[in-house]
């Protein structure tokens, strides 16, 4: 059995033959913010829910950006003299700088493996998931992959 | 839509038959620091290696704490948000990581099942689990290691 356990490539292939897709793994209860919310709102949200990413949506629920813990750290650091107060700086002001602003969202039908490869190649911890109208329907984070291993029956 | 639980469950079932352990996915070597190392050094290490967690060890290599990116962020926001970049660098250069680290750390061993590790991380919201053998740090399991399982095949 232990030989088989370590014969990883073949075994891993079998696990994914089932065609798991993003819809099967994504988090649907997403904490979102609006572009007019402030950096302080972002700091509070991330701390309160112990999360690292917040998609930004407009009034119709369409995805317009994504801000992260890393953005918060970057923009809360003073540049040169003194730092702008967090409480007043709106997220739309930092959105363009965020590398996540460029990342396109994925569809719920994308395979889990392909999403995992995108995350790992681009070194991003979160992919927003949108429907055909650009409406946010979920996010896929590294934590969702951990939960896949935690869910279900059996000791494995 | 109805296919979701079924697909998910059958993949899960195949996975549990593999009886995977922490040693099968853990990251080795692990970047660690000592209590006396500075916060500046820790930030540099996090940036250079692209890691969010640094286990803190004593001179014998025994695990004594964990410093996360979140700890650094929390400190920066509460204590340093009003100071200049220059002052910040000076301050950070002086603070030993031992003062900011979390001293109570949940660790696992290489033989811990992957499911047990995943349940710990998911339920307690741990971003990583240091891996120890007889108290000595031998590796680390992060969320990214679970992701890698999906990409390497």
Main attributes of the structure:
heterodimer, A: 156 residues, alpha+beta, CBS-domain, two-stranded antiparallel ribbon, two-stranded antiparallel sheet, 8 helices, globular, B: 153 residues, elongated
Total of DSSP H or I helical runs spanning 4+ residues of chain A? 8
Oligomer: heterodimer
Helicity level of chain B:
40-55%
By CATH, the topology of chain B is CBS-domain
* Unreliable sequence segments of chain A: 1-6
The CATH architecture of chain A comes to: Roll
- Kindly give the count of domains of chain A: 1
Rg of chain A computed from alpha carbons, rounded to a whole number of angstroms: 18 Å
Helices and strands of chain A, in N-to-C order?
HHHHEEHHHEEH
List segments of chain B where confidence is low: pLDDT < 50 over at least 5 consecutive residues.
Answer: none
Q: What is the gyration radius of chain B calculated from CA atoms?
A: 18 Å
Portion in strands of chain B: 15-25%
**In the CATH hierarchy, what is the architecture of chain B at level 2?**
Roll
Describe this structure in words.
The complex is a heterodimer of chains A (156) and B (153). Chain A is α+β, with helices and mostly antiparallel strands and 156 residues long. Chain A has one domain (20-150): CBS-domain (Roll), CATH 3.10.580. Chain A has eight helices and four strands, in the order ααααββαααββα. In chain A, the strands form two sheets. In chain A, strands 1-2 form a two-stranded antiparallel sheet. Chain A has a two-stranded antiparallel ribbon with strand order 3-4. In chain A, β1 (53-57) and β2 (63-68) form a beta hairpin. In chain A, α4 crosses α5. Chain B has 153 residues and is α+β, with helices and mostly antiparallel strands. Chain B has one domain: CBS-domain, CATH 3.10.580. Chain B is 49% helix and 16% strand. Chain B is built from eight helices and four strands. Chain B has helices at 3-17, 22-25, 39-49, 69-79, 85-94, 97-100, 114-124, 143-151; strands at residues 53-57, 63-68, 128-133, 136-142. Chain B has a two-stranded antiparallel sheet. In chain B, strands 3-4 form a two-stranded antiparallel sheet. In chain B, a hairpin with a 2-residue loop joins β3 and β4. The model of chain B has no long low-confidence stretch (mean pLDDT 85). At the A-B interface, α1, α2, α3, α5 and α7 of A face α1, α4, α7 and α8 of B.
């Amino acid at each position: 059995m232990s030989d088989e356990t370590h014969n990883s490539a073949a075994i891993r292939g079998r696990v994914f033959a089932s065609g798991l897709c993003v819809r099967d793994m994504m988090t649907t209860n997403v904490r979102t913010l609006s572009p007019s919310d402030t950096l302080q709102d972002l700091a509070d949200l991330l701390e309160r829910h112990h999360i690292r990413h917040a998609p930004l949506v407009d009034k119709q629920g369409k995805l317009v950006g994504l801000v992260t813990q890393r953005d918060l750290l970057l923009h809360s650091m003073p540049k040169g003299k003194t730092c702008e107060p967090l409480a007043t700086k709106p997220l739309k002001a930092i959105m363009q700088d965020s590398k996540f602003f460029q990342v396109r969202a994925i569809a719920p039908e994308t395979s889990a493996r392909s999403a995992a490869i995108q995350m790992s190649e681009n070194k991003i911890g979160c992919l927003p998931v949108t429907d055909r109208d650009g409406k946010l329907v979920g996010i896929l984070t590294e934590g969702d992959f951990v939960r896949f291993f935690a869910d279900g029956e059996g000791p494995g | 839509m109805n296919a979701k639980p079924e697909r998910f469950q059958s993949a899960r079932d195949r996975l549990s038959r593999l009886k995977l352990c922490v040693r099968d996915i853990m990251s080795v070597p692990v970047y660690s620091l000592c209590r006396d190392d500075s916060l500046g050094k820790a930030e540099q290490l996090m940036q250079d290696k692209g890691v969010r967690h640094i286990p803190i060890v004593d001179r014998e290599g025994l695990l004594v704490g964990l410093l996360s990116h979140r700890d650094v962020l929390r400190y920066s926001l509460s204590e340093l948000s009003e100071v200049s970049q220059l002052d910040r660098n000076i301050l950070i250069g002086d603070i030993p990581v031992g003062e900011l680290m979390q001293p109570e750390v949940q660790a696992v061993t290489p033989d811990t099942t992957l499911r047990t590790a995943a349940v710990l991380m998911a339920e307690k919201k741990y971003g990583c689990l240091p891996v120890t053998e007889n108290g000595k740090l031998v590796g680390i399991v992060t969320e990214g290691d679970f992701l890698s399982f999906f990409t390497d095949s």
